[in-house]
Amino acid sequence: MKSVRPHRFPSLQRLQAQSSHAGEAAPLSAEAYQQGWDSGHSDGHAEGLISGEAAGFAEGHAAGLAQGEAEARLAAAARFDEKAALIEQLLQQVQRASDDYQLALRQEVVDLVARVARQVIRCELTLQPVQLLALVDETLAATSQTNTAVAVHLNAEECQRVIELAPERVARWQLVADPHLAPGECRIHSAEMEADAGCMQRLDLCMDQLKEQLLTDDAAKAEE
Questions:
Q1: Distances, alpha carbon 93 to alpha carbons 10, 72, 98, 102, in Å
Q2: For the whole model, what pTM was predicted?
Q3: Could you tell me if 153 and 186 are in contact, meaning their C-beta atoms sit under 8 angstroms apart?
Q4: Terminal alpha carbon distance of the chain
Q5: CATH number of 98-223
Q6: SS (H, E, C) the chain
């Protein structure tokens, strides 16, 4: 038969005292304090380095993007200006070519008008050479010629035909057949003056005025 021993529970006061002593932190030694400091410093340094690297990378990345964008804009603007200058040069060349073409075209038109006019004048004088006498009267009236001793030089063929067709009108002048004058040409000589009363001289004057007017119109359009 086993013996039974009574168990004594610790007193409540003793349990409270043990619990109070267990809750109080034991004082740290200098070595433990240093180890804690070093560990905290190391951990803080590592965390700060990681955080700083992340922040620096983000800031550098943003700055790099901004700089790259600015440089790309400058490069694009430079290329645009270069292309724009090239296009401007091409437009100026096209404009000059167009102006030269228009001028040449106008010159050809003037030359064509002059050739047609000369042909018409020759045909008219061939049919009615007496019309030259009207030019002589007009020239003498414009110069206020008073001397009746006037020599009218005409193309040899036209001079002969005028004498045959209007002898009464040429009796007051001295008609001279000049082999050096082309058909339609007429020279007036007197003691007081010399004048050109020919058709071609008047035609050339009209053509010169027409050319000058065309050049004036071109200059006005260029200024616009």
A1: 117, 32, 8, 14
A2: 0.48
A3: yes
A4: 139
A5: 3.30.2320.30
A6: CCCCCCCCCCCHHHHHHHHHHHHCCCCCCHHHHHHHHHHHHHHHHHHHHHHHHHHHHHHHHHHHHHHHHHHHHHHHHHHHHHHHHHHHHHHHHHHHHHHHHHHHHHHHHHHHHHHHHHHHHHHHHHHCCCHHHHHHHHHHHHCCCCCCCCEEEEEHHHHHHHHHHCHHHHCCCEEEEECCCCCCCEEEECCCCEEECCHHHHHHHHHHHHHHHHHHHHHHHHHC
Nearest of 185, 210, 188 to residue 200 by alpha carbon: 185
pLDDT digits (tens, 9 = 90+) for 103-115: 888 888 888 888 8
